[in-house]
Write a structure and sequence with these properties.
8-stranded mixed β-sheet, Rossmann fold, 10 helices, alpha/beta, 6-stranded mixed β-sheet, 343 residues
Amino acid sequence: MKIKRYSLIAAAAVLALSISACSTSGGDGGDSTDASKSVANVVPGALGDQSFYDDAESGISQLKSDGYATKTLQGDANNPAQWKANLQSVSTGQYGVVVIGSSTSSDTITEVAPKFPKQHYIFYDGEIDAPNVASLTYRQNEGSFLAGVLAALATTNTTDFPLATGSKKVGLVGGMDIPVINDFAAGFKAGVEAVDPSVDVLVSYVGSFSDSAKGYDQATAMFDQGADVVYQVAGGAGVGVLQAAADADKYAIGVDSNQNALQKGHILASMLKHVGASIVQAIQDDAAGSLAYGETTSFGLANDGVGLTFDDNGDIVPQSAIDAIDGYKQKVVDGELSVPSGF
């Protein structure tokens, strides 16, 4: 597949201003409306994760406010057969574009898309080689590199980060041991090492993107081992990680959505992939006839497709640390630093 890159910074700003909550399942049906102005979103799980799927749905909500007829079908996170049935049900032409995402549903779209060759699909957070699928990928390793820089700065500077003990230990709790999560981990470890190679990085996997209790337990174990900061890349399960940081009176880093206010004073930043904004951009490109199906659009640090947000964190990260992180970002953009991948 060919890979294109677009900047999402303007689209993300629009979403931040206009989206205050995610829509629920259902929405406006597309059967009696112009299919070219209708979008269906198939979620291989449930909304309310305050993370990945909610961010994607924020894009659908933006499109609805822009005049699109929308429908969102939620599913059981552990029921791929249901995802397939939901995807097939909206693939018969009543929707101009059908959106589905996350690497967990790659088998679903790979199986269904060839059966509906006239249906256009947007697949986010993965790459599908099919002529009627436009793929959106995110360089989460690059965004996670900055999260690693932040974590290392926090555990080595107790003056600016008073909840840190100077243990030189940080952690990452992933949802599942799969390539996309390992891509987060590879970037995070590299960011930590860039600041201080002597900092230890603890890594564990929940085995689920929805088990917040297990996410809590794994993060608590890391804090008990002395970790000053734990980065959550576990979707809905990661909410437990953030709670564990608050209960341990330590720090966490959120992901996908701005989670900084969930446990204010304990979440240093959130690493955003701007999924919702990328979906809006892709749908706008489709309407303009410029979205290339069978190709992949990539979002990274160079086009502001990923990055850290410090908004709503209670100003617990000093400007000097933010400036240092920006310096590392520029080195990646300029090619001075190469961020390893987990793929």
